Amino acid sequence: MRAVALTHVPLGFGDHHWSATDAVGRRWFLTLADLEHKTFLGEDPGTVLDRLEGAMDTAARLRDDVGLGFVVAPLRSLSGATVHTVGTHHALSVFPHVEGDSGEFGRVLEPGRRDRLLDTLTALHRCPPPETARTLPIALEGTERLAALAEDPRGLGDHGSLSGAVADLLDEYGAALRAHLSGFGRRAASVDLSGVVTTHGEPHPGNLLWRDDRPLLVDWDTVGVAVPERDLWSVTDDPDALARYADVSGHVPDPDLLDLYRLRWDLRDVVEFVDLFGSPHRSTPDTEQALAELAGVLARLADRPTD
């Protein structure tokens, strides 16, 4: 395609996005990933790129080979690639422009839409994982360093104007954070992984587009093989809704696993925010927002009973 117009789209938190229009008026959605700041995929750009390529290929296979129409997957280049490197630290994927009503992270779905999302996840969970799908451990990378920093916040170092504020937060909430990290590790090590399925990873309202009241799922870089609860915890904790999922899917959601993934989400946020402030940074609207969100997550963890 030959783009004749590019417009920056300030959406999401991690990647950078543009809307493109080609010479014949078709529209496309471009996502540029910063390979140094996707720590949930790996600790170095090479690993992140490999896993990002696997995730995008999995999404494309779910759409093209399995026929899951709710998967908003990247297009393939003439060589068949779903990811194109840009320099040494960025990677580009191109998506079709999809019209629909976008959701918002943190918004609670009304029961009708919630049930339609659960039906969509049932269809995903029933399909055999493509060979490109990565099997995901429950254990969380980066927890050993985080536990050490919760014990001695001075180990964070001075990498920018907000490092001191982050060290103060780690000092204030260190005891609760260490307790949750220890409890999470024990619980994650004991999980039975025999019933794993294809999961999206983050099917919250912010990753949904609604077309004719039908959900389409975007942001497939978190796709992987895991227990169904990895998807379900962020959708609902309503017993009736979960019982309905069990009737349709044949899998009875485990309350302990739902809670474990809820805890994992908060701990992963802390790992990523601390990694951000443990590297060179400046005070910007983005980093100020990240600092506020880190404080909120740590306060929530402090209020949560330890295991």
User: What is the arithmetic mean of pLDDT?
Assistant: 94
The rounded Rg comes to 20 Å
Low-confidence stretches: none
Q: Indicate the structural class.
A: alpha+beta
Sheet bearing the most strands, described? 5 strands, antiparallel
Strand order of the largest sheet: 1-2-3-5-4
H/E series: EEEHEEEHHHEEEEHHHH
Instruction: Supply the number of helical segments.
Output: 8
Total number of β-strand segments?
Answer: 10
Question: Which structural traits does this protein have?
Answer:
307 residues; alpha+beta; five-stranded antiparallel sheet; three-stranded antiparallel sheet; 10 strands
Notes on the protein architecture:
The protein has 307 residues and is of the alpha+beta class. The protein is 42% helix and 16% strand. The protein contains eight helices and ten strands. The chain has helices at residues 45-64, 111-126, 143-151, 163-189, 229-232, 239-249, 255-277, 285-303, and strands at residues 3-9, 16-22, 27-34, 84-86, 90-96, 101-102, 197-199, 208-211, 214-217, 224-226. Strands 1-2-3-5-4 form a five-stranded antiparallel beta sheet, with no helix packed on it. Strands 6-8-9 form a three-stranded antiparallel beta sheet. Strand 8 and strand 9 form a beta hairpin. Helix 2 (111-126) runs parallel beside helix 6 (239-249), helix 3 crosses helix 4 (163-189) and helix 4 runs antiparallel to helix 7 (255-277). It starts with a strand and ends with a helix.
